[in-house]
Amino acid sequence: MNAAERNNFVLIDQQRIEVNGEKSILELARKAGIDIPTFCYHSELSLYGACRMCVVEIEGRGVVTSCSTPPVPGMKILTNSPRVQRVRRTVLELLLANHDRDCTTCDKNGRCKLQELADRFGVRKIRFGERDEKLPLDESAPVVRDPNKCILCGDCVRMCEEVQGIGVLDFVNRGSRVMVAPAFNKKLQDVECVNCGQCSAVCPTGALVVKSEIDKAWAALHDEEKLVVAQVAPAVRVALGEEFGLPPGEIVTGKVVAALKRLGFDKVFDTCMAADLTVMEETAEFLNRIKKGENLPQFTSCCPAWVKYAEHNAADLLKNLSTCRSPQQIFGSVVKRHWAKKLGKKPEEVFVISIMPCSAKKFEAARPEFSVNGVRDVDLVLTTQELARMIRESGLLFDQLEVEAFDMPFGLTTGAGVIFGATGGVAEAVLRTAHSLLTCKPADEYANDGLFNFETVRGFEGLKEAVLEVDGLEVKVAVVHGLGNAKRLLAEVKEGKANYHLIEVMACPGGCVGGAGQPVATGGEAKKKRAQGLYSADKLSQLRKAHDNPAVARLYEQWLKKPNSSEAHKTLHTSYQMRGRITGEEITLLTSKQENKINLAVCVGTCCYLKGSYDTLKKLMEKAESEGVGDRINLHATFCLENCEKGGPSVRVDDTVVSGVTPDKVESFFTENILGKLKIPAESQ
Amino acid sequence: MGEVMQLKTGSEGIGVAGRRFTKVNEIIERHGRTPSALIPILQEVQEEYRYLPEEILTYIAVAMGLNPANVYGVATFYSQFSLAPKGKYVIRICDGTACHVRGSEKIKTALWEKLGLSDERKTTDDLRFTVETVSCLGACGLAPVVMINDRVYGQVTPEGINEIIDQIIAEEEGEKNAPEEN
Q1: Angle CA(A267)–CA(A270)–CA(A274) in degrees, nearest 5?
Q2: For A406, phi and psi rounded to 5 degrees?
Q3: Rounded to 5 degrees, what angle do the CA atoms A418, A423, A425 make?
Q4: A595-632: pLDDT as tens digits
Q5: How far is CA A417 from the centre of its chain?
Q6: Is residue B126 scored above 60 in pLDDT?
Q7: A361 is catalytic
Q8: What is the extent of the structural domain holding B115?
């Protein structure tokens, strides 16, 4: 052994460990099989070093945080010295002193990291009393925020900002009053939160949890009058087993069906059938757009968190979103508007519960456009975790359940629908069908030769690309997951730098397999295993293209006629609405006490601001002054007139919104819309 | 259009609110849209409005391309920033060690009583006075010290502070005929 090699070692607890490019002592120690405890360390987030749980003692340097200290050859590190033990216990005691300790009734009971570490380090007494202040909960969104349980690790703040690119949450106040909250302590529903729930997925305590709606499910199941129908999303079948000790990625479809039947569901169907229907509609829409060359690139619309993100941040590109509803909502529509009718039942007599890996699906199902005469298409959304809890509550031994098959007719699926649960799945499913439709190859010519599998869109790379070439037609596809990646791609699309025809966006890293409703998965490994599980399920399917699904074919035959027909448009498609990024007050600039006055509001939201709405505003004020009508106008600056699509800057004149009022058009706008309106009362005075 | 121009308004042009808002934009332009300029921008905007209104903070976030949550986080971190309107006269009672032992508590109680304020109610309803305590004004030789806006008063007594307040009120009443901002 030469000197250089000898120099590449550190001593951790008397063990010689080789340093191999590890960035921190923490990383190195974990590789060496020592589980250093952490709250604020996540490999996918930036370093924060705030929780102080990962402390180690270095000879000659004292106690340091191992997450933010790189290993230097020759270091002598102790991970469990008396000093380290004392620091960790004290930190835990201090955290617990400020933590609402009603563990028995907490949603995270049994899965809470604070609870786990307090137990692991034997904290049995807290010397510092209890939290005396009880702050109100925010239950406005599918993610419930309980500030009394927050330990200020900042995981949620960094997840939302760094991975999702949104930044809804941040630290507020200072010292003992610090808390994590949205801007101005608003509720989550009043800011640009997209309900992806990734904050709750990294939250070590019960401070951020996905809202539980189990009680509503039991109520429906115990209601004799109701026909309760389940739909199970693809990503659920490769993750639910983890809650019962099975490895990630194990396909437990048969057990999920059996469990749902035993819980009392009358029918158990597969959301993948609806995904196949989505592929039919979305591919037809896509090929039509290609033919006409309009509204390209087409963005997928299956992910409700992405849809809401686009509504907040990409109003000018909303026309590029596929108008197809997500598989969840397509399923609800098929069951309530078609299948129920065939059974002679009214939509309100059928209760649709979907089992989803996702918190945003709860928001999606409650969107007003997915109700007809007050009856929702999907009545209730349960997460994978909620289903696991119901199974435990009912006393079923999950691993011993005999497998059962989905009910017909909506249990018939193809591999195309199954891979919807992983990033790249929707794009691949659409490409498979588009390829077949374009080449007019009969179904049985489908070969698993890799060419038609479009494997380049699989995997966990942030941005994946594929090119499909058919008869000289070149279709360029991009796939992104994690909204931070989507944000970067959107910027390129807006600048005209990204040249794609189809873009798949999934809000959560890894796609639905990494959804916030799934069992907690630290690191990317479990998510990758789940995705592999879905691709194996696809490989095992006899049918792998959506248009080969006989159940889908029958729906077209009996009801929808053909993809994108008027009936399909009515029941399977939707529209989008622009949303401001924050609800808030307007800035008052001019106030008129006169009776005959004009109410003017200039939008200074992001879209309009970037198009120069401030200058418009300033010119309007100057113009009002020079024309001497300053006291006849109520002038406000407002944060979104939800008119971004038509092109800013937007100005609201009384009840009408005028778009495209750029600074150079103020002159003519003023003459037409303001002086013109004020003239009549002026003359009559 | 000619007739309209003859409309005599008697207004004061674009008004206080409009002028203040144009000022906000000037401040942002002058400092540039870099995140490190946020604190000086907030300081100057607070000079203009005497506090940081929510809608103005949202505007600053939009203009600087930051999240409103970030801007709110910074604004709530520093005690120099106020998200509630402050009075025209901000009275800072020094409660550092020297002032504390020489009776700053009594001055605070006297002021609270005089102006009907308390620990929770720091500003009078007419937005004339705000009473705050600060840790040290650095004038321990003059303890106890009170600052009213930019003016320092040394060796203040409860009676003395009452007189100062009465004087300010008298001046204000005298000015009342002249149009006051806001």
Answers
A1: 120
A2: -60, 155
A3: 40
A4: 888 888 998 888 888 888 889 988 888 888 888 888 88
A5: 20
A6: yes
A7: yes
A8: 89-175
Contact between chains at A682 and B77 (C-beta distance less than 8 A): no
Q: Which of A355, A352, A361, A369 is nearest to A303 (CA)?
A: A361
Assess whether A369 carries a catalytic annotation: yes
Cβ neighbours of residue A282 closer than 8 Å, sequence gap 6 or more: A298, A300, A301, A322, A324, A426, A430
ipTM of the prediction: 0.88
End-to-end CA distance of chain B: 32
Residues of chain A positioned with their CB less than 8 A from the CB of B3: 679, 682-683
B51 CB neighbours in chain A (<8 A) are none
The answer to whether B63 and B33 have CB atoms below 8 angstroms apart is: yes
CA distance B24 to A617: 13
State whether residue A632 sits within 8 Å of chain B by CB: yes
Catalytic residue among A130, A294, A369, A672: A369
**Would residue A445 show up in a list of annotated catalytic residues for this protein?**
no
Instruction: Return the CATH number of A3-80, one of 3.40.50.300, 3.10.20.740, 3.40.50.1220, 1.10.150.390.
Output: 3.10.20.740
Average pLDDT, chain A: 91
Distance CA A36, CA B95 (A): 45
Check residue A609 and give its pLDDT: 87
Instruction: Identify which of A161, A173, A624 has the shortest CB distance to residue B76.
Output: A173
More confident residue, A683 or A269: A269
Distances (CA, A) of A390 to A15, A206, A262, A652, A684: 46, 19, 11, 51, 73
**Could A609 and B70 be called an inter-chain contact, meaning their C-beta atoms sit closer than 8 Å?**
no
The pair of structure tokens assigned to A80 is: 């469990």
Q: CA-to-CA distance for A131 and A121, rounded, in angstroms?
A: 21
Identity of the residue numbered B1: M
A389 touches B: beta carbon within 8 Å: no
CATH class, domain A93-210, is alpha beta
Q: Indicate whether A450 pLDDT > 80.
A: no
pLDDT digits (tens, 9 = 90+) for B129-156: 999 998 888 999 999 999 999 899 999 9
Task: Using the structure block, give the residue that is written with the tokens 């009394």.
Answer: A148
- Whether residue A627 lies within 8 A of chain B, CB to CB, comes out as yes
Which residues does chain A have within 8 Å of residue B4's beta carbon, measured at their own beta carbons?
627, 629, 675, 678-679, 682
Q: Which CATH class is domain A587-684?
A: alpha beta
